[in-house]
Amino acid sequence: MIMKQVRLSQKAKEQLSRLKGKTGIKNWNILCRWALCYSLSENTVPTDIPIVADSNLEMSWFTFGGEYYELYEALVKAWCIKMELPTDDDTVAKYFRLNMERGIAHLGGTGFIKSIDDLVGLAIKEA
């Protein structure tokens, strides 16, 4: 398990709130999964900036990952290996957070997601 609790920045929470409205997806954890996978697919290392977990949006690791929580941990570890980064727990947790925040920023901060169809289209295009 990468971490016990996942807590987001206030900015990420606001971006997720807008995404919830645009897509109709009601659960934070589902949007966070989309954001993480989107960021991991970019094949670049996110900027290493401190993430201030200053929002009241918090979920357990098991809530974030659902029944597939082990898969999300494996995806982040595989990404770390691909980027030639260590796979110790601290590094994996750090890049999980950086990738999730970056994914939320891209999905929530750009104007290209206007509906759930845009989100699905993005996933299909990337595949």
TrEMBL record:
<dbReference type="InterPro" id="IPR038472">
    <property type="entry name" value="DndE_sf"/>
</dbReference>
<dbReference type="InterPro" id="IPR014969">
    <property type="entry name" value="DNA_S_DndE"/>
</dbReference>
<dbReference type="Pfam" id="PF08870">
    <property type="entry name" value="DndE"/>
</dbReference>
<protein>
    <submittedName>
        <fullName>DNA sulfur modification protein DndE</fullName>
    </submittedName>
</protein>
